Amino acid sequence: MKRRLVCLTILAAASCAVPRYTERDAPAFSISLWVERNPDLDAQEILQACREWSVKGVVCSLAQSPEVADVRIMAQDSRCTPGKDGNITLAYAYHEGRIELFIPCLRDGNKVDKELLHAVTVHEIGHVAGIWEHVTPGCGPKSPLHPSGQHVCGRAVMNPLADRDLGYVTKTDALAFDLRERGTSLLRQLRRDALGLGANPPPPDCTLLRK
Ligand SMILES: [Zn+2]
Predict the structure, then answer these.
(1) What pTM was estimated for this model as a whole?
(2) Considering the domain boundaries, does residue 185 fall inside one?
């Protein structure tokens, strides 16, 4: 199944700082990225954005070729035009392991807005990790329930509207990661022995307590 997900610009950014997720889970997953050669894309910066998910045990690396990569990062240079609702699509993530970044929409003047590119990339990596549903900024009784009893809602890099000041994993994102769709996640279970972490299997990253 091919499914496209979008993230959109926030039209009136008025944000206050949201704390990062400060715990650090043991390395348990790997994901490799291939970054298309493009003057506006720096592979090391894309890698740094992926590494925001290291707090959830994700080990990121750069692949030598698109054929062997789990995810291919592509630059789209088409014109940047707002949709009917006034929002601007910044990127797409595809189930088959492709992320398209709309470079003209990420520019501030002649240069790409590095903070916005970082935030958008962290968001799209979250999608391909299996968080295909956006996290709603507002909370209600229908908000997804984490096994810990906490509702998965609030300010997060996985909100549908991009926030250039929120390019990191928040506590809400960490909960959403636990609830990700494992069947369509492009994360691989990490071969711990390859990283010298010992052969013991990693602990489960989410303990279910359903009644
Ligand atoms: Zn999105």
Answers:
(1) 0.87
(2) yes
